[in-house]
Amino acid sequence: MTEARQLVTEARRIVVKVGSSSLTTAAGGLDADRVDALVDVLAKVRSGGEKEIVLVSSGAIAAGLAPLGLARRPKDLARQQAAASVGQGLLVARYTASFARYGVRVGQVLLTSDDTSRRAHYRNAYRTLDQLLAMGALPVVNENDTVATDEIRFGDNDRLAALVAHLVRADLLVLLSDVDGLYDGDPARPDTSRIPEVAGPGDIAHVTIGAAGKAGVGTGGMVTKVEAARIAAAASIPVVLTSASRAADALAGRDTGTYFHRTGRRSADRLLWLQHASTPRGALTLDDGAVRAVVERNSSLLPAGIAAVEGEFSAGDPVELRDTAGRTVARGLVNFDAKELPQLLGRSTRDLARDLGPAYEREVVHRDDLVVMNP
């Protein structure tokens, strides 16, 4: 066993993500045998009492297709949400019954990116998940497809899994799919090989990564899984990408799938969500001095440095901070409504406090609510 795989066996808190295609039949309904097989593996891993599992499970929309007479995943959000409404209950009921065979309690946690980019909501999400684990329950996490709008959706559960792993301070993220790891070409071709380990992005710069599969039940493909692995690894969480059928081998540290080494340090919890989960509601264009202050000196954004405002947003919403060339240099949570900002642009804090009162003597984006984007 390599040193990297040894870290897998030593992981105490593990986030496991499983995709729709690994849980459903060709017709779109839940495959009870496949669900039970996954539960068998996870229950065995946590049976010694030393390991905790958080399961991020796709499958709600897919499970709702057949009961609603839909042959494929619908493209419009309204019908997706209808399918999720039907399917989420079926999905959690199946997990509840299957884990009950081992005396394991299941707790359902549904998230939107809006829940996790706002400070109070973020803290509450962490407390809920941490308390479930402390009480011996197994959280089953999914995006809240039923109520999420286009503006507050994660878009795929691979990215959600990486962010949940960071949220719960996981020691390991396992991404389960229908393909045993990342290959240097089309896995269906005999002349391609599995990539056993990825030490950094440069290791796979030459690899053409495939998009979503043809089953028509999920949103993710290998592209989203590799991106999720990159997010987690950059936050100091190792990742194993493998097939659901080889989950037991992967969790035992055997040479299966692709292991992504940690590439960075753990960042401030909520800022990772702000960078990767939030959908900006607008944009602020900064002058050159403000760009330098934000990017190089980690300063808050003041009204004097803003040249233009785009979009309709409210105080507390995520916005992009752009330079004069239109490049996004940072994201942050804005402290003013969009309609308030035009009267503040280019004015000093002292002038604003004098003319408009002390309510305007504050930052547009505080540095604690700001994350600089990688170029």
Give a structural overview.
This protein is of the alpha/beta class and 375 residues long. The chain is 34% helix and 17% strand. It has twelve helices and 13 strands. It has an eight-stranded mixed sheet, with helices on both faces. Strands 10-9-11-12-13 form a five-stranded mixed sheet. Helix 7 (157-167) runs antiparallel to helix 10. The radius of gyration is 22 Å and the shape is globular. The protein starts with a helix and ends with a strand.
- Describe the main β-sheet briefly: 8 strands, mixed
How many strand units?
13
Q: How large is the share of residues in beta strands? A: 15-25%
Evaluate the radius of gyration.
22 Å
Mean pLDDT over the residues? 86
Specify the helix fraction band: 25-40%
Short description:
With 375 residues, the chain is α/β, with parallel strands linked by helices. It is built from twelve helices and 13 strands. Helix 7 runs antiparallel to helix 10.
Please render the helix and strand layout as text.
Blueprint: H1 3-10, E1 13-18, H2 32-46, E2 52-57, H3 60-65, H4 77-100, E3 106-111, H5 113-117, H6 119-134, E4 138-143, H7 157-167, E5 172-177, E6 197-198, H8 222-234, E7 239-243, H9 247-251, E8 258-260, H10 269-276, E9 282-286, H11 288-297, E10 306-311, E11 318-322, E12 328-333, H12 349-356, E13 370-372
Parallel strand pairs: 1-2, 1-5, 2-4, 3-4, 5-7, 6-8, 9-11
Antiparallel strand pairs: 7-8, 9-10, 11-12, 12-13
Helix pairs in contact: 2-4, 7-8, 7-10
